[in-house]
Amino acid sequence: MRRHPPSRHVLAFGLAALAGMVDALGLLKLGGLFVSFMSGNSTRMAVGIATQPALAWAAIGLIGAFVGGVFAGALLARAAGRWRKQAVLGLVLALLTMAAALAGSAGDGLTLLMAAAMGAVNNVFQRDGEVSIGVTYMTGALVKLGQALASTVTGGPLLGWVPHLLLWLGLVAGAVAGALLFGRMDLGALWVACGWCVLLLLWSAWLGPLPRPDRLA
């Protein structure tokens, strides 16, 4: 994250909080499956194949929706050029709004839209066509946190570990908020997630387009 200016760190922390909130809502609704943590869903799928086929199919559907969201977001990012952050966030907002509008339904389309939104949001931060900051999964952030701490104690940057910690804390804080909101609003809390996404989109718009050449994505 050191290559990104502080203003974009704020956006990353906010996106991690959004991912934590949406994933907590999905987890509580689905009773053990996730809408953004596909490593967990992959394990649940494998266990389901061996013990509970219905669980495996549910996990497969979420994984497919997530990958579809990544695919759509990547295509949109390519088309939007220097405005890709704003375009991708617009797509995420649209998917979350459709999910929120279905909050009272009993179908699977709602959680699939949530998974697609979480897939798409990973296209906000890219470098050379690949994800530069993962905002829906924190294993990489925790690995980098440990590495940065090791660098600090061996003479490296004193605070180089802080952004990775804040990214993880952003997701945790969002998940706590999502769990609290679910107890009061069920999946109607998706409207709160939509409102948060609007704020992030406005912040991204204030930051403006990516610089030329595109090296600070």
TrEMBL record:
<dbReference type="InterPro" id="IPR010699">
    <property type="entry name" value="DUF1275"/>
</dbReference>
<feature type="transmembrane region" description="Helical">
    <location>
        <begin position="161"/>
        <end position="182"/>
    </location>
</feature>
<keyword id="KW-0812">Transmembrane</keyword>
<dbReference type="Pfam" id="PF06912">
    <property type="entry name" value="DUF1275"/>
</dbReference>
<feature type="transmembrane region" description="Helical">
    <location>
        <begin position="88"/>
        <end position="106"/>
    </location>
</feature>
<keyword id="KW-0472">Membrane</keyword>
<keyword id="KW-1133">Transmembrane helix</keyword>
<protein>
    <recommendedName>
        <fullName>DUF1275 domain-containing protein</fullName>
    </recommendedName>
</protein>
<feature type="transmembrane region" description="Helical">
    <location>
        <begin position="54"/>
        <end position="76"/>
    </location>
</feature>
<feature type="transmembrane region" description="Helical">
    <location>
        <begin position="189"/>
        <end position="207"/>
    </location>
</feature>
